[in-house]
Predict the 3D structure of the following.
Amino acid sequence: MKRALAQNEEIIVIMDDRDGRDAVRAIRADITLMGTRSFIRWMEEDFGIAAAATAWQTVRLATAGTADDGEEDDPVHIRPA
């Protein structure tokens, strides 16, 4: 991981626990954090991955509807290179 960071590679952490994201952010400000729903939306909208269009519904079914929908404005922290 240290080698990757030394080469200016980005680290993305997908974590649905908001308190957990806050804790990670407090330790390492240079890590990109997002929830699962935001990641899926990112894959569909920004990268055009068609299968992502139904991925969130699949997650909701697999978790018997308990997956956290998060907030619509769930922060996705992407810093420019």
User: Anything to note?
Assistant: Helices lie at 2-6, 18-27, 36-45, 55-62. The chain is about 40% helix and 5% strand.
